[in-house]
Automatic annotation (TrEMBL):
Cellular compartment(s): Membrane
Protein name: SLC26A/SulP transporter domain-containing protein
Domain SLC26A/SulP transporter: 20-364
Lipid bilayer topology: Multi-pass membrane protein
Assigned keywords, A-Z: Membrane, Transmembrane, Transmembrane helix
Gene Ontology CC entries for this record: membrane
Native organism: Roseicyclus marinus
Gene Ontology biological-process annotations: transmembrane transport
TM regions (residue ranges): 22-42, 49-71, 91-111, 123-141, 173-189, 196-217, 247-269, 327-358, 378-406
Pfam families: Sulfate_transp
Amino acid sequence: MLTPKIITTLPQSTPKSVLADLVAGVTVAMVALPLSLAIAIASGAAPETGLVTAIVAGFLISALGGSRVQIGGPTGAFIVVVHGVIATHGFDGLVLATLMAGVILVIGGLLKAGNLMRLVPEPVINGFTIGIAAIIALSQLPDAMGITLPAGTPADALERIPAIWEARASFDWPSFAIGLGAILGIIALRRLFPRFPGLIVAVGVVSAAVAILSLPVDTLGSRFGMLPDRLPLPRLPEITLARLIDLLPSALIIAFLAGIESLLSAMVADRMVAGNHRPNAEIMAQGVANVGSALMGGLPATGAIARTATNVRAGGRTPLAGIFHALVILAVMMLAAPLAGYLAMPALAGLLLVTAWNMSEPQHWRGYLTTGRVSDRLLLLLTMTLTVLADLTVAIGVGVALGLALRLARRDVPPADWTPPDR
């Protein structure tokens, strides 16, 4: 079924439910604002691209999606692949890859591929998620500690770890204090006031301390300049057959990640609100959202599990909450863009370190290593290792192939009765 959820929920809305969705939308926007900026920076893109993605893709995912409460936007899962595409093909190459991924997802929605996404083995999903979390954490350690790496330092873990160690003399105590303060503030506010958008408060407070005390700490403004106060005009990237072929593997990975994460988020949301999402409508919406984000110069987007959970806890119950969230971010961008320049880079790095920790779901590590089949544990470890040390494309390809082969073997399918060829 491709009918967006908003079609069936809007006629049931009341002034009270709309107000509840508005409050939830404002709340989740306050969480999404610094996170979108941080994800864009970690991806190697300009910070405003994160806001553009949250606004454009967030609006389209809520307006067209198959979940009642899904919140869409840039997510940490894309950081690794986005960084790699930008490093190899430039930002224009990323825009084209995102556009291609959007088209692939639209076709997938029409072909009802949303039902097939559930066949991806869970150990593979857990393995590459933990691997991505480890790469994100490794990428943010220098900013969180004020360590200055030489220009052109590779992003590969095997080369980046020695580079960080060799640059340890540049360790900066004020930057470390700001990064640690942001981490402790986020954790404390989440535990004390779980429904309150403590994330932006923690990042805002430590950034204010940098400005008030005139600490020698890098800020968003000092590194990137002032953010724009409006959305860019739509623009098509350069499209040639050679570029389409070169970027196809990246586009497939972006489409795969967007599809998997959006459906995982929708399933989590279903359990929280006793709902029933429409997977093919969700895949279709992800496709349209990624096309829209690409045309506006944004990043790849998908359903964000943490922001979706924040939306539900804040009282959001219909797609209007996600639409309000996008409009609030747009309003902040237009009215308060100069204030974002004061955000401290170590604070944003601390925010992503917390995000990476939560992505890896440490509460499940023991279960991963002690329960289930040995083959599933080995599959998880293999996917995680390949993600960190090799390449996300290789990790997903090998993991999915082995996982499906193991699943087929467990069904005790009889071997084929081969007969000699008649030649």
